[in-house]
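Why does residue order matter? Because the sequence determines the fold. Keep that principle in mind as you read this record.
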Amino acid sequence: MMAHEQKRIALYTGAYNHIADGVSLTLNRLVAFLLEGRADVLVLAPTTSKPALEHQGELEPVPSVAIPGRAEYRVALGLSRQNRERLRAFSPDIMHIATPDLAGTQARAWAHRRGLPIVASYHTHFSSYLDYYRMGWMQPLMWAWLRSSYRSCSHIYVPTPSMADILRSHGIHDGVELWPRGVETDIFHPDRRSVAFRQRHGFSDDDVVVAFISRLVIEKGTDVYAGVIQAVQAEGVPVRALVVGAGPAEDNLRSMLPQATFTGHLSGDALAEAYASSDIFLFPSETETFGNVTLEAMASGLPTVCANAVGSKSLVRDGETGILCRARDTADFTQAVCELIRDTPRRAAMGRAARERSTQYSWPVILGRLNDCYDRLLKEKN
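Structure:
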């Protein structure tokens, strides 16, 4: 199969340890899984002197700069000579591209010249981000770039069937494979609900806590969340707002919701406790390709009120595990939240159904599926 006893995978990503988001967490989990399975992995990615994550595996830093005004994001400037020399010394069997930027293009070209199998994973719903930043006019150029980027890829891994449909509708047909995300159902669990957490944050037993748990950036729908909480309060429906996360939209959220509880960034057991100690998960984002936080909320036994958009609609069963609302429609979200606040038995039934559905998303099975794809490609090549 290879000149090595075990497969060697080079992974390029624009997000690995400098930011704690869904992409970086998923890829770190993938690398840990591959290393446990005795694969060799080299990660090429931007980094920083104060990373947000303790990364998995060997990281080869790619030159990058912070985006002005959004320092948590970095843009790779392309592969350096040192990066190329490290790739050559590592001698990968597969090149995995997780970000189709300049460095990703160069990594793909490097692998193509050497006849290596190339795969890509689609993590970011780029077109919806362009809409948020009033750059929708760039969508034809973006899709042309993506078609070119993925043309030489044997596989393109997408997290949901609806995301696969979108790629196909834009002319990206060949090699599209489903690779969803998983959740640690033993960590994110209804049993993590904590009276002490609620008391610590001033929530009584009777309060209905509506949580927003994500990076605090406008493209996650922070403005819609704030608008819904305001509208629910204006209708005289008792509600408590819990915001978990950090980011540049925090100041605006605090000004719109002065009585909300803000915890900052949480992880591990503290994050699991925050989910399970809430009552409703409200997530208006329409930019998700999957929705890791939605799945974590479901595993924690929460009914989820989400945008009827690419990521959430593949997870949430409308009317059974939660409610899907029209994207950016504050009135529709408000109605859904008010209904669940007023109907405790329905809220509880949805939470139980959400928990049950979440158990289908086992990380070992999902990561093993991707590993099987790698093995299939290598078998075909040899």
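Residues 321 and 354 are 5 Å apart (CA to CA).
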